[in-house]
Amino acid sequence: MITFESVSKTYRDGTTAVADLDLVLPSDQISIVVGPSGCGKTTTLRMINRMIEPTTGTIAWDDRPLKSFRRTTLRRQMGYVIQNGGLFPHRTVLDNICTVPALLGWSRAKSRSRAIDLLKMVGLDRSLAHRFPAQLSGGQQQRVGVARALAADPVLLLMDEPFSAVDPVVRADLQQLVREIQRELGKTIVMITHDIDEAMLMGDRVVIMRVGGRIAQVGTPDEILDRPVDDFVEGFVGKDRGYRALSFAPASGLPVGRVRSVRSAASATSGAPAVVVDAEGRPTGWVDPDHGPAVLPLGATFHPETDSLRAVVDATLSSPLGMAVALQPSGRLAGVVRAEDALAAVRRRRLEVADQHRPEEQAADAEPDDVPVADAEPDTAPAARSDAAGGTRPAEPDATEPRPAEPDAAEPDAAEPDAAGAGAVEPDATPGSTSTAPPADGDDLERQPGRALGPPPADAPEAPAAEPRHAEDGSR
Ligand SMILES: Nc1ncnc2c1ncn2[C@@H]1O[C@H](COP(=O)(O)OP(=O)(O)OP(=O)(O)O)[C@@H](O)[C@H]1O
């Protein structure tokens, strides 16, 4: 757990990048920091591995102040991934991934074996191992960047807009990859992005910052989508937040009804609409005898066990008959959900969310008909009911059925064996480098990205105190 207490950062030129930040980033979760350009995201991230030091306040890792760690020791436990991977252009993929293990003194055989394992983990063929970064696509480079950051098995992964330079399809793959890595390896990940959709998709916890380096809201994605605290957050999360919030409600409780299935449109000349299925029982389209013999498009489908309510609503909207086709895990037809049932589930969810956020005293004073709709009698009259905000809304009778750097890389720790850069991998700034780092210069050093930082070996010593000469901002 990383804890910021009253943390501020003012640069030498007087710019306050972060102001009075109180924040907890829990372990073993993905925390996403999101906000408009210049709101202090990168400054916040780099204060975690002490590439930047706060001007005031305290940052602690599992209750231990960061100041009490040597920077190099700290960084060996924190992998760091930046846009474009920040790879050394003149080193092969394998050598890039082996950088930190090599600096930590691992044997060549152990480093290479680890690198090959990581290539597989990030979904790259080992035949790419001897290529140079320029011979890879942007997405492949980014995967190598992730592999390099993981090479020495860091406890924490810091990611600074890692996917902003790749196209949406590759981006979706990389997002999935990082989520899988987090699940499988149980890493703590802190990632920054401009993209609120990415934040909502990937974050267990989302921190929205506003310009001036202040926190606007912290919460789970669905909390933020359901309850933006103010106009800024509401504007930032976008107009379709109600629809996107459905991504966090499972489809599993919906009633999946039976539907007629036929092998060809010719076999459904009368009667109710039917789903046309292939020889394996997989749905391919609809036929509606009232609309003639043509096979109608199937629309989107969904898996009841794994998909969200959003997928179901989308499937009903894209179905020509307003029925979402549910699939078994095998892809065979499982049944259908009617648009009315999907909407009833949406209404129930809204009521549940409103109920969760109702102040305690209001809940205690609640009238009997304030109970969640699922608990109401099936024949509840469609009269007005109090809502969570104390207003009224019409009752929904059909909803009543219970349904189912920087700098100090430039100012290495003399006491550390990797003082010349071990544990702090700098992207090459030569022409052709994939790094987007500005040249290091004074304070700009703080903005210099591109260190893949690994953890210490299990027996790595930790120095008891911070190094006073590391007054950051260049003032030594
Ligand atoms: N070394 C520096 N010296 C002076 N000001 C700086 C320095 N680094 C950052 N800033 C300023 O601090 C503020 C926050 O910058 P920061 O890079 O942390 O924001 P950000 O949210 O990551 O921005 P972006 O999304 O555009 O990368 C900005 O006004 C920026 O210009």
TrEMBL record:
Residues 2-237 form the ABC transporter domain. The keyword Signal does not apply. PROSITE patterns: ABC_TRANSPORTER_1, ABC_TRANSPORTER_2. InterPro entries: AAA+_ATPase, ABC_transporter-like_ATP-bd, ABC_transporter-like_CS, P-loop_NTPase. It holds the Pfam family ABC_tran. Residues 362-378 have a biased composition (Acidic residues). Residues 467-476 have a biased composition (Basic and acidic residues). GO terms for molecular function: ABC-type quaternary ammonium compound transporting activity; ATP binding; ATP hydrolysis activity. SMART domains: AAA. Residues 417-430 have a biased composition (Low complexity). Keywords: ATP-binding, Nucleotide-binding, Transport. Residues 353-476 are annotated as: Disordered. Its EC number is 7.6.2.9. Belongs to the ABC transporter superfamily. This is ABC-type quaternary amine transporter. It comes from Desertihabitans brevis.
